[in-house]
Amino acid sequence: MSFSIRLTAEERKLASSYAKLHDISMGEAFKQALFERIEDEYDIAIAEDAYEEYLKSGQKSRPIEDFWEELDQ
Question: Per-domain residue ranges for the chain?
Answer without folding.
Answer: 9-72
